[in-house]
């Protein structure tokens, strides 16, 4: 693997860094306090091409490789994880999944809007009663003539109240021969679909996280994404790439923690000199730096494997597991460097820690990533 960046990749990273400094950084604290990112950011992300990375230009995408996608995701995560998550879901989990599994008609209908930021997508897998055990989901899809009728509840759905289209997973059959889950593309304004914002989150406060309730939601047969019964494979393939995106966002959090800790340690004086002169402060900083490098290298390896067309799902779990735990450690260490000032939101590190914490929970908890890795190593499924 070539660990250097090409000129194009370096340019994409610079573009992302400038975008974050101009469009995101000035608003981060206000959005976090208001519990809402300004929705105008979505079209800006689309205009600069960040919502179309790796998607073909014939569908409005901006092409590019997965390492470029990781570089942009890292920079967004460094700026504001709430914004990073909007992209990771609308592009990473929804648009890319439509590109990979959708019919030509579905691609043409949804991808230009999703990649330009005219439309937002959300990923409806988790339910109140099924999180880690997603295959046991209870939302039902019943075929009636040329339609599907959907009933059920989805929980913790990122972009839920903003979304124009829901990539929804529902049980369409009890056939014991397969898992019986199918994937559907449900326009969010379909009658019977209601959404409730979930407030009071520890982190990612700027993001619209919602509960979705489906009561006799009727969609045409053409809303089925991929063959009936393939929905669980669709979800798992989306999450395998999604975990790389979460990992890249975590690298961004850890890098932001490092930048903040180094800056503050050089300025804050105690015992007559900047705290950077104290060995135990250097220990905190160097621990963050090692976490940043290790998380980044694991994440880049996943991108490299995808771009070379090799299997990557287990490596993606490793990267997500390590990077999410590393982001929590890094943000916590940075908060320690800031002392009491780290505990108030005039300084960035408290938010980094709050935002980092969910990364060990969603798209598969750390325990679930370990079971994925353990299954690959032992051949035994211990779920
Ligand atoms: P549970 O599955 O109930 O787990 C509880 C605990 O038990 C965890 O520690 C878990 O690791 C452990 N556990 C469970 N099973 C095992 C096992 N077999 N072995 C060992 N330990 C186990 N979901 C979506 O579909 N779309 C989204 O866009 C989305 N966005 C989210 C945004 C936020 C802010 C949050 C908080 C969640 C989001 N989720 C989303 C849901 C998320 O993916 C789930 O919360 C996650 O999968 C865990 O499920 P759970 O919360 O039901 O926990």
TrEMBL record:
Keywords, ordered alphabetically: FAD, Flavoprotein, Oxidoreductase
Cofactors (names): FAD
Keyword Acetylation listed: no
PROSITE patterns, per the entry: ACYL_COA_DH_2
Residue span(s) of domain Acyl-CoA dehydrogenase/oxidase C-terminal: 229-377
Signal sequence interval, chain numbering: none
Family from the record: Belongs to the acyl-CoA dehydrogenase family.
Highest taxon in the source lineage: Bacteria
Protein name per Swiss-Prot or TrEMBL: Acyl-CoA dehydrogenase family protein
Domain Acyl-CoA oxidase/dehydrogenase middle: residue ranges: 122-217
């Amino acid at each position: 693997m070539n660990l250097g960046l090409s000129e194009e990749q370096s340019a994409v990273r610079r573009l992302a860094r400038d975008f974050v400094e101009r469009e995101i950084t000035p608003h981060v604290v206000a959005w976090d306090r208001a519990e809402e990112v300004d929705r105008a950011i979505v079209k800006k992300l689309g205009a600069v091409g960040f919502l179309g990375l790796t998607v073909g230009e014939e569908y409005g995408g901006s092409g590019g490789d997965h390492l470029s996608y990781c570089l942009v995701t890292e920079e967004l995560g460094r700026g504001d994880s709430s914004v990073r998550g909007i992209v990771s879901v609308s592009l990473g989990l929804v648009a890319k999944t439509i590109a990979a599994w959708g019919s030509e008609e579905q691609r043409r209908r949804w991808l230009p809007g999703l990649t330009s930021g005219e439309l937002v997508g959300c990923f409806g897998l988790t339910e109140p009663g099924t999180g880690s055990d997603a295959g046991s989901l209870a939302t039902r899809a019943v075929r009636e003539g040329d339609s599907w009728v959907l009933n059920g509840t989805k929980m913790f759905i990122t972009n839920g109240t903003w979304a124009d289209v829901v990539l929804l997973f529902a049980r369409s059959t009890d056939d014991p021969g397969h898992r019986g889950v199918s994937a559907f593309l449900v326009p969010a304004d379909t009658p019977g679909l209601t959404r409730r914002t979930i407030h009071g989150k520890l982190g990612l406060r700027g993001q619209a996280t919602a509960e979705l309730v489906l009561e006799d939601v009727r969609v045409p047969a053409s809303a089925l994404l991929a063959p009936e019964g393939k929905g669980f494979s669709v979800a798992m393939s989306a999450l395998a790439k999604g975990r790389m995106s979460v990992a890249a966002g975590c690298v961004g959090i850890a890098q932001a923690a490092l930048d903040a800790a180094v800056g503050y340690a050089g300025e804050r004086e105690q015992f007559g000199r900047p705290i950077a002169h104290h060995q135990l402060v250097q220990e905190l900083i160097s621990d963050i730096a090692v976490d940043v490098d290790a998380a980044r290298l694991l994440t880049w390896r996943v991108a490299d494997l995808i771009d070379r067309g090799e299997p990557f799902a287990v490596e993606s779990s490793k990267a997500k597991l390590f990077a999410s735990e590393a982001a929590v450690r890094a943000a916590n260490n940075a908060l320690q460097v800031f002392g009491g000032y780290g505990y108030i939101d005039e300084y960035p590190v408290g938010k980094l820690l709050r935002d980092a914490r969910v990364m060990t929970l969603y798209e598969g908890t750390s325990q679930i990533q370990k079971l994925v890795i353990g299954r690959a190593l032992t051949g035994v499924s211990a779920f």
